[in-house]
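Dear colleague,

Following up on yesterday's call, I've attached the two folding results inline so they're easy to grep. Please treat them as preliminary; we haven't cross-checked anything against experimental data yet. The first protein's sequence and structure tokens come first.
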Amino acid sequence: MNSNQVSRRDILKAGAIGSLAAVGIPTFIPASAFGANDRIRVAVIGINGRGKDHIQGLQKQKDVEVATLCDVDSDVLRNGAAEFEKKYNKKVQTLSDLRQVYDDKNIDAVTIATPNHWHALAAIWACQAGKDVYVEKPGAHNLYEGRKLVEAATRYNRIVQHGVQLRSSVAIQEAIKHLRDGLIGKVYMARGLVYKWRPDIGDKGTSAVPGELNWNLWQGPAQTRDFSKNYVHYNWHWFWEYGNGDIGNQGIHETDLCMWGLDVGLPEEITSSGGKFLWKDCKETPETLTSIYKYPKEGKVIQFEVRPWMTNKEDGVEIGNIFYGDKGYMVINGYSDYKTFLGKERTPGPARNEGGDHYANFIEAVRTRDKSKQNGPVETAHLSSGIAHLGNIAYRLGRTLHFDPKNEVFVGDKEANQMLTRKYRAPFIVPEKV
């Protein structure tokens, strides 16, 4: 190819050129580095849980190749690669350290399905390496990280898609339009519901680190702890060093939809109450949590409920949202179904059940370099995660908190403000200047 010819893949990478130079990465990237047939080559980081869905969703996309699998557990990685080869009749590169992924110039984009405490740093490092990013919810483990991720996506001109897949649902997009158009009148309240079966996890204590697991890398930004089977591979969700409880797990989909439907950002007043009332296990996060987020200037409020066991449904909803207006209410069940009920008699109104493809939306934005096409832009990774973090802080401190959404700090509360970030462990530090 001569100097006057520009391929589609050249265009794909063009947005990163200036920023890459700033961090010492060569600005000349040969077209041959991008793989055959002008494909987008993707690495999936963390393949034991949601990463499996990432692989499947990406492999369905035209001219997209899952080229690399990365996991800190060698057994998970080996089994994942064998399953991939069997299913897709092709071999895939395997790496154990995400930093090796970022050094690979043949990788155009990464998806991140690690535990929560790794999400933001992994995504920021990817941006700095010139990779586009699909990151699972919550996009950040604390409020500080979310803001830094937004800054990194902006500075390095990267597409960063947050895994709130209901935003790509055709039905939910229609539902939001109804809210904006006044179908149920003035929308003043949203409820988020997370009624998900969460059993007793016991207390397995500490034990030797399994030979297949890189425990140091698994812990990453978190402070060092002795290994416990209670953490790996799923129940880390219920420990503050790694997870954020169910409001920061399943609940991010619902916090995101509450804010989207009400058309609000972060709140000014937060109250949370809950605890562990069922099991005497080693979970640190509350089993049951009720959070109230007030928006006095807008005259709106969010109510959020987490219940783990033996509960009723609300209008058929266990996982979802309910919006209340002065002319009716709207029920959103799961990720792709809504119904409306109008007037005092609750007369059924518009309804629809139709999903979408969040991975396809990500790939479209990557190809076009157009962030406006994103259904789950990086700002949702900060805000929908951030509101969950605020609720958790109010719960942990046991008092109503007042928050300044413009400056993203609590008002006159040093103790609460210290909980907006965390103590990081070198070299896994979310930088102040990204």
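Below is the second protein, in the same order (sequence, then structure):
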Amino acid sequence: MNYETTLSSSLDSDLVVDNAERNRRRRNIALIVAAILAVAGGAYYFFGSSTAAPTDADKAGQAQTVTVVAPGRDSVVRAINATGTLAARREIPVGVVGEGGRVLQVYVDAGAWVRQGQVLVSVDSSVQTQQAAALEAQIGVARADLQLAQNELERAMQLVERGFISKADVDRKTATRDAARARVNVANAQLAETRARNARLDVRAPVSGYVLERKVEPGQTVSAGSGILFRIAKDGELELQAKLSEDDLGQIAVGIPATVTPVGTDRAFNGSIWQIAPMIDAQSRQGMARIALPFDTALRPGGFASVEIKAGAMTAPVLPESAVQTGREGSFVYIVGKDNKVKQRPVKVGSVTANGLIIEQGLDGTERVVLYAGGFLNPGETINPKLLKKQ
């Protein structure tokens, strides 16, 4: 009885072990099948789906949205911006004209207005004054000799009629009278020359104008080799000397208005072009445009200033700076075609206005131009354009 019970228990235990083993194998098989199905599904997704070309709707759904604008054409004033140096329109250097001497007094300083002929510097002329006095005395002597010779000639003319003296004596007395008269003329000329030289000792203003610079002091000895003592802006007229490129020079003419702003101030001064250089510098490929300006103490010759020249009105597209890109070959923009693909279009950029950059060449204004994010696009890329209405 005990043997049968033991055998029955042993059989039951083996049966339980077999069932557990079968269940474990079933689970393993199920997991393997599930893994195979997952791999097959992924392979189909990646390889099977790639064989089918995406539709236009798929592309539109995946393309990034980009803001575009149709610039049109605006009437704008073409402005040329440049920089230059302020200067006197006609700067007159003033130096010693006469023989010079010791400076007694200087009557003007830099920043003063002078009139033509005004004495700027007086020079010691004591020696020259004595020389002039000596010449005046010589004139007196010469006139006395002339009077004596004239009287003797008149008496001789009376005696020759009576036969007391010969005709030859009269001729000699006539020659003596003429020589005395010549000596008087020589003395007068020498005195006039001395007086002219003495008048040139003082330094005078050759023109009326504004004194820019003074380089002389009382007690200084000056001469013809002393150099420049004063610089005068004739009539106080000033100018801006702006260097422009060949292209810009071709766009301007004499009389065109310009606005000048000196460095260090917000004041703007209105002027106009009065001269355009007839030559171009071979090194810099630039030429000079000279802009006449009215006198003002804020305009200091030698200073730096910027200028905006109104070069006439034109009709052209105007774009914000964000729409214009710069590459190795120059400026360009991205335009959007009918298929919503971007294309690179080279453009020529003009001057800057309050509304943006003037596009002189490359656009007619009807294109859809990428307004922002142009630096993140590539030619041929498909986008979803969002048109921004121009205000």
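For the second protein, one point worth flagging: The first helix runs from residue 2 to 48.

Best wishes,
A.L.
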